[in-house]
Amino acid sequence: MTAPQPIKVLFAIPALDQAGPDRVIFELLRGVDRRRFAPSLLVSDPEGHYLQRLPADVPVHILGITRTTSLRDRYPLLRALRFVRGAAPDIVLATLRMSFTIGAIRPVLRRQTRVVLRQANDLTADFAQLVKLSLVKHRVARALTIATLRGADAVVCQSRAMGTDLRALLGRRSRLEVISNPIDVDAVQAAVAARTVARLPGTPALVSVGRLAHQKGFDLLLRAIAQVRRRHPAVHLTIYGDGPDREPLQDLARSLGISDAVTFAGFSRDPLPHIATADLFVLASRYEGFPNAALEALACGTPAVLTDCPGANSEIIAPGVNGQLALSPAAPAMADAIECAIAELGTYDRRGITEETRRRFGASRIVGEYERMLTSVLRGEA
Description:
- By secondary structure, the protein is of the alpha/beta class.
- The protein has 2 domains: 7-182 and 362-379, Glycogen Phosphorylase B (Rossmann fold, 3-Layer(aba) Sandwich); 185-360, Rossmann fold, CATH 3.40.50.
- Helix content is 43%, strand content 16%.
- The longest helix has 17 residues, at 363-379.
C-alpha cells in the first residue's frame, strides 16, 4: 500500500528575521512532522536571522526586497499569485503583510489550495491606533483586512481575547483557531548557559525588551519606574530595543529625574543571558498579539509583569506564580503590579516558571496544535 503524500504547506511572511512572528514561523518550519508535511517558505526579503538558520530541507522562494514604501513592493500580489499557482501547495499559511497579499489573491488561486491567515495583533486595538495617524487610509485598510480574513479557510489568533475580538469583526461563519505562540525552552536555556554575563544593575534589577514605539508603552513604564523608585530607590530598569520613540523616551526619563535608574541598552541579538540575570521582566504594552519577549523571559525562569491589555497577556500571567498583571495599561497600575512582584521575589520558583512555560507553550506542543489545525482545514472539517 502506497504511503500518503505529505501535505504541502507554504508558509508566507515578509521576512524571517528576529521579530516575534518570524520566530513563530521558524519554529513551525523546523518542527512540523516531515512524514506528514512538506514545508516551504515564501518571503520578500532575502536576508534575516532565522532565514539563515532554516533546516536544509525547506525550499525558500524570494519574491524580492520590500524595503520601499511602494504598495506594489510591500504587497506583491502578482508575483505572489504567479508563484503560488505554480507551486500548487495544498495550504498557504500567511502572516503580517503576507496575510493581506495571500488573502487578496485567494479568489483566483486553485480551488484545492486552502488559505490560513495568522493575525499578529489585536485587530481592533491595532487599527484604533493607526486610524489616528491617517483616518481615511487606515479605515480603508481595516475594511480590506477584514474582507481578506473573512475569505480565508481559517484564521489563527493567539489568544481567546483575540478570538473574541475577531469573532465580533468577522462573524460566525469564519473559522477561528486559537493557538498560542511556541517557545523552544531548551534552546533558550542553552543560549543562557552558553554565555556568562554580568548581573544587570539594580536592586531589584528590572529588564524590558521591545521596539521603542507607542504600542509597547515604554512611556507608561518609565512613569511607573518613577513611582516605584520612591519605595525602592535602588531599582534599575535596563531596556533592550530600539525604535522611533528612543529620543522622546530618553527625554522623558530626564524630565522624570530617573535617567540614572534607566539604561537604554539598544537592540541586542542575544538578550536572553541578560534577561536571565534580572529579577523581573517588565512590559507595559497598550495592546499585544502574543509578547514573545515575555515568553522568552518566562522560559529563562524570570518572572514577568505585564499589562492586562487587548491580546494574550492575561492568558500568560498567573499572578503570584510567574509574575503579576497590571490591571490596565496605565502607569499607576503598572507601578502597583511591579511593587507587588518585588514583594513576592522570594516566593517565585524560577525553575517551576521554566517548566510551566514548557508545559503550556513548548514548541512541540504548539507545533502539534498547528499540525492538527492544518490537517483539519485540508479535509474541510468545521
